[in-house]
Amino acid sequence: MKKIALMCDSSADITKEQAKELDIHVIRMPISMNGKEFIEEETIFDKDIIQALKNGDQVKTAQPIIGDLTRMWDDLLQTYDEVFYLPLSKALSGTCHVAIGLADAYEGRVIVVDSEYVCYPVVKMLQTARKMFEKGYTSLQVKEKLEKEGSLFAVLIPENLTTLKNGGRISPAAAALAGLLKIQPLLKVEHGAIDLVDKVRTLKKAYKEGIAYVTKDIDPAEYDWMIIDADNREVSNELKLQLEEVIHQPVEQHVFKAVIMSHAGPGTIGFGRIKKIWY
């Protein structure tokens, strides 16, 4: 059986400790704060991002540096036969498109999944890929199965609009109006893209509507479930129980780390489901 290195980028919300334990290789993404550049989990950490966002500082993310990406591939191919890379959704980042182009030079030894995944579901899919490799599937077969059969659907509920406003994702006027009217947005993640799905008047109602929306018109047993929070574990604990009461399925808990949190902001809650892939 071929030795295949599993790889993702740090938008998958995976720590160095988790990556080592799961034997997943991670290319860390650049983060800039007030014009100064850092590398996530190397020169800047979650606590720094949380504090910066609470201070109203401008925090931005960027694609992995191309030289770092190809250098990691070159290093891995010294000891592995292939690299299986699952990047951040192509709808949210150019990383996927760039990586697919770069992989052409590696004559089939670097396989890049045309991804629609975001956050920790990337890790879940890499774990599924490993099990498929152990059953004899090739990298190209796994890539095809993930691209055709895999799906992620999630509802994100930011605690407030400050980070979205500071990041330029909504205008200051829209944020001010939403705050004045006490409007709470619900954002959906579907086909790898983020879009507004609903607006309600209170955070409590947003959580209730979020659970209703993510569980609507599906068989919960056909999905793996998770709740992800950005420095908001107490609320996450309560909502995990509420979601489990509705779906009668186990719900994993994870955290939004620096890359995703810098876009959504501290306090954000995400309800997510991943379609189970049968193999």
Number of spatially distinct domains: 2
Category by helix and strand content: alpha/beta
Q: Strands of the biggest beta sheet: in what spatial order?
A: 10-9-8-13-11-12
Shape: globular
Discrete helix count: 11
Percent strand equals 15-25%
Description:
Helices cover 39% and strands 24% of the residues. With 279 residues, it is α/β, with parallel strands linked by helices. It has 2 domains: 4-29 and 64-149, Rossmann fold (3-Layer(aba) Sandwich), CATH 3.40.50; 152-275, Hypothetical Protein Tm841, Chain: A,domain 3. The strands form 3 sheets. A 6-stranded mixed β-sheet has the order 10-9-8-13-11-12, covered by helices on one side. Strands 2-1-6-7 form a 4-stranded parallel β-sheet, with helices on both faces. The longest helix is centred in the C-terminal third of the chain and has 15 residues, at 233-247.
